[in-house]
Amino acid sequence: MATAISLSLSLSYAQLRTSTLRTPCHRRLSASGPHGPFPRLRRRSLRVSAAAGASPLDAGNPAWDALDGVSVFATGTGDAVPLRDLWDPTEGVAVVALLRHFGCFCCWELASDLKNSMEKFESAGAKLVAIGVGTSDKARILADRLPFPSDSLYADPERKAYDVLGLYHGIGRTLFSPASAKIYSRLDSIKEATKNYTLQGTPSDLTGVMQQGGMFVFRGKELLYAWRDEGTGDHAPLDDVLGVCCKVPAT
To answer: Is pTM beyond 0.85 here?
Structure first.
């Protein structure tokens, strides 16, 4: 399994190098600078729990405001849906899980863990919204083969949600981050989750392969928790995410 992962990462590097050389300079530079009309949040992993209180950068409403105008695409229908319409903006609790992309084997593992935790999230009154880089067709590959509930899975082909939420992007974070070493402690979990894995879920625009994911918990417009993956496979601890959801007062 370790050999398979190494080979997969090597293949990704070769694909990324070719894609980057063919990508216009302004598109490459946008990964490290402001992109689009949305304000960017600081790029760093924050563990902001409800008990820890507000962070001046990530708690409160800045993240909600940044998502204004950002749409994702439903896996089942391909229809565009405003991201902020996916939960109640008054008191609804949502766990927004941003996967790297639908062809990432580590993301299949995360999607499997999220699926297995859905009952716990629902018991805590939280709605799960999972998003991946790619088109709805790519999302359906993961939904059908893992499998994963398609009504909880959305596609973000232009990485707009990732960009405004300040998630990392680049070859360094994707292939060379020390944070990625933790995947070698989860080889059995990855092997189990990827029994039906296929590279066909990889986005056609290979710059999407360089995208890192993250995890956010909202209560209405308020951001309670933010985690930005430092490298491939650096997923938020789901027990921590569930703990934040359980601390939200019942309405």
So the answer is: no
